[in-house]
């Protein structure tokens, strides 16, 4: 996961949407591995980085990745005692599902 840390330090240099989406997926995988190891603060960083890489229309063009990142991020926020942030993220996921 050290590689992800280095990549995430240069997020602002990545402008290609395909590359950003691919990197968001890698952050999702790294975050899940960190969460399984009970490294919740690391998981939170990866999930936040992944969400930041998503394009504005991510729910339309990459629904599954958006869903997974938002849900994992909400859980990591909750596990890190950021209850209000977690609730907002869970509500976003619910809104997307109810608007379909």
Protein traits:
100 residues, 78% helix
Describe it.
The protein contains 6 helices and no strands. The relative contact order is 0.13. The protein has one domain (2-98). It is flat and about 35 Å long. With 100 residues, it is mainly α. α2 (17-36) runs parallel beside α5 (63-79) and α3 packs antiparallel against α5. The termini are far apart.
Brief account:
This protein is mainly α. It is built from 6 helices and no strands.
Please give the structural blueprint.
Elements: H1 2-8, H2 17-36, H3 40-53, H4 58-61, H5 63-79, H6 83-98
Helix pairs in contact: 2-3, 2-5, 3-5, 5-6
Shape: flat
Give the uncertain stretches in residue-range form: none
Distance between the termini: 35 Å
Number of helical stretches of at least 4 residues = 6
Order of helices and strands: HHHHHH
Whole-number radius of gyration?
Answer: 13 Å
Task: Find the structural class using helix and strand composition.
Answer: mainly alpha
Main β-sheet description: none
Which oligomerization state do the chains in this entry correspond to? single chain
Q: Please tell me the total number of domains.
A: 1
**If you average the pLDDT, what whole number results?**
93
Number of strands: 0
- Provide the helix percentage: over 70%
Beta-strand content bin: under 5%
């Amino acid at each position: 996961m050290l590689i992800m840390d280095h990549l995430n330090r240069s997020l602002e240099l990545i402008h290609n949407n395909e590359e950003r989406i691919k990197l968001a997926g890698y952050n999702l995988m790294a975050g899940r591995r960190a969460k399984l190891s009970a490294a919740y603060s690391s998981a939170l960083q990866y999930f936040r980085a992944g969400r930041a890489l998503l394009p504005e229309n991510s729910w339309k063009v990459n629904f599954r990745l958006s869903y997974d990142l938002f849900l994992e991020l909400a859980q990591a926020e909750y596990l890190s005692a950021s209850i209000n942030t977690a609730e907002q993220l869970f509500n976003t996921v619910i809104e997307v599902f109810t608007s379909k």
